Hints:
Elements: H1 11-30, H2 39-44, H3 47-62
Helix pairs in contact: 1-3
Amino acid sequence: MGYNLPKDHCPALTAESLQRDAEHLIVEVAADYFDGITVHKLICCGLEKYHKFIDLIVGMCVNHPDFEAPKF
């Protein structure tokens, strides 16, 4: 268990990159349902709106009646 990174990789930067990739994927999937939404357009509107959009989409998913939390 734990992180298996090459010696020259920073764990914090790797985690930030993974989070950014996940956020972009959330926006790309949501774009199928919201016409004209792209990662670039949201970021151009400001990072606050970009993060608010992601929070709203994730909130809609986890509050859906059929959502089941992952079991670890």
